[in-house]
Structures are given as C-alpha cells and as structure tokens.
Amino acid sequence: MQHLRIKSLKEYKETYQKSIEQPEQFWDEVAKSFLWKKEWDTTLEWDFTKPEVKWFQGGKLNITENCLDRHLEKRGSKTAIIFEPNDPKEKAQHISYKELHAKVCAFANVLYNNGVEKGDRVCIYMPMVPELTIAILACARIGAIHSVVFAGFSANALAARINDANCKILLTADGGFRGDKVTPLKSIADEALKSCSSIEKTIVLNRCNLNISLSENQVWWHEELYNVNNKFEAVAVDAEDMLFILYTSGSTGSPKGMVHTCGGYMVYTGYSFLNVFQYKNEDVYWCTADIGWITGHSYIVYGPLLNGATTVMFEGVPSYPNFDRFWQICEKHKVNQFYTAPTAIRALKKHPISMVEQYDLSNLKTLGTVGEPINEEAWHWYDEHVGKRKCPIVDTWWQTETGGIMLSSLAGITPDKATFATLPLPGIQPVLINEVANVIDDVVAQGRLAIKFPWPSIARTIYGNHERYKDTYFSAFKNMYFSGDGALRDADGDYRITGRVDDVIIVSGHNLGTAPIENAINEHEQVVESAIVGFPHDIKGTALYAYVVLYNDVSPSEFLKIEINQFISDKIGPIAKCDKIQFVSSLPKTRSGKIMRRILRKIAANELNNLGDVSTLLNPEIVEDVIKGRL
Ligand code: WT7
Fold this sequence. Notes:
This protein is an alpha/beta fold. It is built from 19 helices and 30 strands.
C-alpha cells in the first residue's frame, strides 16, 4: 500500500481536493489496494436524514486476509507484533506475520468448536497480551462480531455490555498484570456472568497463574488449542457486515454500542494509518493505548497490520517499575513512531528530565497524541525532550464514532502546530457551525464541529438503537454528523479542538458521561442527588468534581466520600472516580428543574467572578453556599 502514501504538501493538497470533488472515485482507488474476495458494485450510498451510510456494497472480503494472509509471501517472517510484558524482567515476544496467521487460524478453530458462527457476538474482556489481538482477529476471520470491553471496567459495566449485545461467548483471562497490581479478571467476569444469560461458554486464558478454578461451561484457552490445527479459511463477509461493537459513554443513559462495519473500516484505518504516521516498511510503530478503546482497535491492531507494520503491544503502565518505562521501551525496541495521550505526557513531564535523557531515542521519527486537547506546555516538552525537535507531532482528532483519525497533520508532510489538530485527512469534510445552526463560511471562525459528508469508517449505528444514533449525531444540524466537540479555525485553515460542548467529560483521555456517574452516586442510600462537572487538572487534563446532596439526617464525612467513590468504581470502574466530592444542601436548578452545570463548572474551576446571571435560578441563594463549601 506504500503507493497510497502522500509524500509532499503539494500532493496532500491535490489529493484532498480530489477527495472532496470526486469522493467516490477517490475511495474507489484507495479501496482497490486492498484484497477483496469480490469487488463492490456501488461505492457509496448515503442519506444523513435516515441516517444511513453504506460503503462498497456488494463487495465481499475478510479483513484478516488483508491483515495477515496478504503479507505472508513478501514478509511472512517480518515481526507483526512485539509484545512487551508488564514486568521488564519478562522476555519480550516477537511474533512474525506467519506465526500470527497460524495463531489466529488456530484460535478461529477454537471459537468455531465452541459454537461461534458468522454474526455471533463475542465479548472480549482481557489484558493487553497478544492473545487479545489474536482473539479479535479470530472473530473477524469467522465473521463473528467482537465486543472488546476494557479490562478496567467493573462487573456491572461488563454485564451491561454483554447483555446489550447479547454476546454468546466470553473470552477472558485469570487476571491481568498492571504495574504492581493484578486485576482479577476471571472473578470480575464471574460476578458479571451471574446476570448474563446469553453467554454459553467462557474461554479463559491463563496469564497470571492465579490458580483459579473453572465452573461448568468454562474452558481453558490452552487446552482448547490442543484440539485444533492452524488452518482456517477466512469467511467471506459483506462490506457492510458488522466487524465489531465498541461501547462509548453518552452524555445520558447507558453506554452506546458503536457499530463498525468491515469494508469501510478496513479501507479507512489502513489508509489513515499509513498517511498520518508516514509508516515505512521497516519501521517499528508503538501506540501506548489499550485495545479496549478505539485507539487500540484502529491503531494497534487493524491499521498497522493492514499495512504489514510492526506494532508494539505493551501490557503495563508508564509508571512501572519507574516513570522511565516508555522511554526504556522506545530504546529497547528502536521505536520509530510513538503515539500516546496528552495525559501520559503531562504525567511523565513531572519527573526529572534525566528519566528521558538517559535513553537513546534517536530512532524516533514521528510523535503522536490522541484523546484530548494537548496544552502548549506539554506539546513543547514532548517536542523538545522526546522528539529532540526533529520529530513532527501529529495531534490526531477523532472519536470512537469516527473509527479513524479525522483531523491531523501528516507527519513531516503537512506542517504541525502546537495545540492544533490542523487539517482534515483526504475525504473528510469538516465544518464549523454557529449558534443559529448555520455553517460558518469565514475561514477564521469558532463553533461546533460537524462533518458534512460521509467517510468510510463512520459508525453505522448504535447497536440495537438506531433512533438514539440519529438523535445523538444527526439531529443537531440538518444533514450533518455532529461530533459533540467545539473547535476554532485559524487563518491557515487549521483546526484546534476546544473541547466537548455536551455533558461528556474527557478525563485522562477517557470519555465519561456525567449521567452514568451521577446515577451510580445516586444509588447510594444516603444520597438524594448529585451533579458531576469537570475541572482543570494538571495531569488528567480534566478531573471530576461531584456535588452531592445528602438526606437531612445524614452527616457528611470523609468515610462517605470513600464509599461514594467505591460505588462509582463498582458500577463503572476506577477511571470514573471523583477527585473532589463536595456535600451541598441542594443543587442550583433552572425553573424547569434542570441542574445548572454551567455554574457548578465555574465554581469547581474557581472562576467565581463571572458566574453569569443566576437570577433565573429556582434557588439562587444556594450559589453562595456552594461557593463557601468549595474544595
Ligand atoms: C473525544 C472522543 C479517538 C480516540 C480516543 C478518544 C476528544 C480526541 C482529540 C484531540 C482534542 C480530542 C474529543 C472527542 N479528543 N482526540 N487530538 N484533540 N480532543 O476516543 O473516547 O471516543 O473520545 O475525545 O473530545 O470527541 P473517544
């Protein structure tokens, strides 16, 4: 696919122009570089009012043939995955394309023997080990739909996701290593399974030797492998068949199971990976995300493997055994492209610079960030100390819903600019929308960020709830996909994301809805109600601040705060715990009873002199009280 790599600014401009003037011809050409079992009949059919988007209809393919089989002849012995374990004393693994192909086929046989068929949903709740990637690809090989649930989620959250997608099989492990902790995945899964009647079988990987026992309908991963060979013909699926479901939080209600389909997702992740990171054939690429999030799906697994790249999978955390772990791994594996989150950069930047400088980072060519806006200081630190001012930084803006990177510079090809995601990728047509829902034509502008034309990896629906998909993304502005983010555009046409404009809060790059957290808190029997807002935090970017109203006969205590956070941790997961919990006598509300988060947000951020007009509140007197009790 190297011929699809854009090699100059001029070529970017021409390619972009063509991609918006003749989108279908453009994507036709890109798609032709992939391996199809049958060519498509229609490139694109769409109607944002329904909404409906279909790419490459009539085409048949299997994405794993593109990730694996296609590379065997030319680069069978090239390393596909470098696995770096949590414990630096444990040996790294190098898995070649040939070996990965064999392992995926073998595990596809295991799934098949356990009753998995095309279209079945398979839930994957696993640590960051190669078997996770193998499991994902094995599902895709069969045409089954994977639903990976991040291994930091609680039993409740896992059960909700299994039930929503009606998963038939669960893949998990005894535990997962993360820094000096072991997450007891199997016991969390067992807890979840008490309320999951759709699961017929659980396949358990032994990662940590935790000495657990299996109950009925649970089998060991390694024992299942005894019975299979490593041949499995890839099942031909339709371009618009589902490839996976991945849950993301919404501003209200339950998590949304975003659905991605096979053909378009393949074309877009393959193409965007190559162009954004400017991957060349012998490079070693490392994305530090977890495969439990979309970043890992698109840019640890699919994007790199589609390009025959070497992709690093790291099981651990940046702080273990020390805060130099990332740089040590970059040196050890001679990493060329390094892709991480602003929150990690901010955390690592707090430590002595010698932590970075003692390592040879001379192989680095491209740096990347994703997940939240990067602040100026962190950007310059990254540029200076990690990239030594010679590595372009790609600030990649995208979402679980977009499947792939939408706005970003192309490393070394289009200019980067601190704190700006910069320009749209070919095929992406962003617009800014003003207060009265009109597209702003001026180049220099600020508004809400929407996309006016479909791209191949747009999520097609929310699993089981197409109405909600329509409401959330296509009802704010006519004939547009609305991202939920605000952005500004400068005189160069570069975009800078200003943050969410809805009730989603990005904490350490994780997308959290306020409503589910409030619901969790409100389930505590001593709590009347609560409101969550974000406030600026030097490492997390934004952290959570909870205002909690207790029943009259309850006295506030530190213990209660711990209990509330434990509640959140049980219902959602530790990532949603609140940094600050303030007990208040009531919450400021509008006359229609809606909580005025705007005011609470300002109080939490200590922006007390422009609270705006509070006179329209139902209970304006409460504002003074809340300010007094501010933490
Ligand atoms: C939200 C999507 C896409 C993978 C990780 C997060 C924020 C993402 C950037 C960036 C500023 C960013 C947005 C977006 N976001 N990348 N480069 N600059 N903000 O996926 O969990 O679906 O979250 O993350 O607010 O809407 P996600």
